[in-house]
Input
Amino acid sequence: MGHEEGQQTRGEDKADKGKIARLANWVSEQTGLTYPLFRPVPEYSLNPFYWLGALSVVAFIIQGVTGVIMMLYYIPSPTQAYSTTLYIFKSVYFGEFLETVHLYTAYAMIMLAFMHMMRGYFVSVHKSPRQVMWMVGMLMGFVTLGFGFTGYLLPWTVVSKAGTDVGVGMMAALPAPIANLANFLVVGAGGDSTELLRFYDLHVVVLPAVLLGLLAAKMYMLETHGVAEPVTGKLTERLKRTLPIFPDVTVYLLELAVIFGVGMLLISAIFPIAIAPEYSPQAAAAIAAQPDWYFLWIYQILKISVFETVGLPVALTFVAAVMGALVVLPFIDKGQDRRMLDRPKFIILGAVFIAEIVVLAAWGLITPGQIISNVAAVEVLGGTALIVTLAVSGVYMALRPSGGSAGHGSSSGPSAPTGGPALQEKEDKWTGGAMTALMAFGALGIGISIDSIVQLASFGVTASMVTRLTISLSLLAAVVALTLVLLRRLGKKLDTLEGRSSLNVGGKLELN
Amino acid sequence: MNSTEKIAVPLLLVQTASVVFLWSLDTLTQVSQTIFTLFLAADLLSFGLMAHVFLSLKTGSTVQGTTLVGWGLAIMILFVAGFIVS
Output
């Protein structure tokens, strides 16, 4: 069917008399580009959120091109790695530009891969028949993180070497067989020399090969299963219509790719990178070592005082369990419901996961090298989980009628008031009073939050100020949740009052 | 010329001009690398606009006037910024 549609579109192209169309047809005839090797893509997928993974691949390609050029000059040895990095930066044409773009697209690749995963989680792409596809995607995500880990060391700056040492040191806490294997893979027996060489080999040979293999497997499965249908909005006939992969979908992807590329270029131009000083043990001793931002959340967990000594394996096991749970998610979240409104537990879990990662990373950024007390960890992480759970639960209560799935519970609202105008007037007063009180508490919460943030930024992090901020944010979240509940109740009441007769008619029709 | 080509031709001219200019730069200094970045961004955006117009016409959806103006404005700002920096 896909082939027929592809051929049909090809025929339409030929009918186009434009010069560009004729040129495209000639290229197609010569190269076979329009032969429908890939299945046509439904029009509803022409949406940037469907292409986050593809954009991550675009970032990977940019990485490949800039990386290959840098390979012409870079020497992976402790004595020359820094000087050749500096040489590329200062003496090679476009060198600074190359290194800046390489770094920022690496960041973008990791961020896009994370967004791709979380979008997939929220819209349930991991459900049947795409379970294995999800797992392959997760492995690709780990490989992407591996690129970050191995690439970070290569400039051999004091920051990168010290940060990598933290990661390598953590591996020693793993169970002996895994620690030995990891040590063999990334360090070897020759100290810094073999470590740098192995990181380089992993970065430029092993990981790209693994990623390309996984990408091929995932693309094959995508061809088999097709794009997952959207879980929200109405799927019209037009949106279901398919488009050939070439030229239509290719052109769309190119459009997204150039917008992404322009973003990267402008960020690179506005915020050019600076190379940190060269690594030496003395220089490393003078700084607070920490990994790059995408590993900061793990590092911050390890800095909690309970995990500092004997607790390190426990912390690593916890992090590994979170990642493992993401890999086997299709076998945990097994229900057939794909809509977010019908999966409150998993949506709340996902929201808490994102919030905790962001909070941990931001917290790690402002507390380099500091040990986090157990009390502060419980307050901040517990507070974050509480706020997010309350906020998302509030949204659910507002949007999802009780006792049934969304969109099917219109009959479950409260009964209509029966006490006449006097009761209604009383209710109006209570409603007005409640809304005023909520607004006051909301303003209080916002005010204290802003003040706490300013205090934290000005005078540093103190346990009392973090507690104050946590409480004020909790208050704010509770106000938001209660306001949503109140609005929902008001909305239902208005529906009941305005549509009593129509409800009756609806009831009769339902009975018939 | 059809409507796609009416837009494509000037954009191709813009791209050609920017590429010629880019090759003339001495790219070892910070300023010239910034200029290069700005013109390359303008180049890519004009290509993106061509792709957008092509796909819109192909799928039968209308090309919004505001989109065209916004996109064109972005290209112009990049060009002007490039000339100012240079």
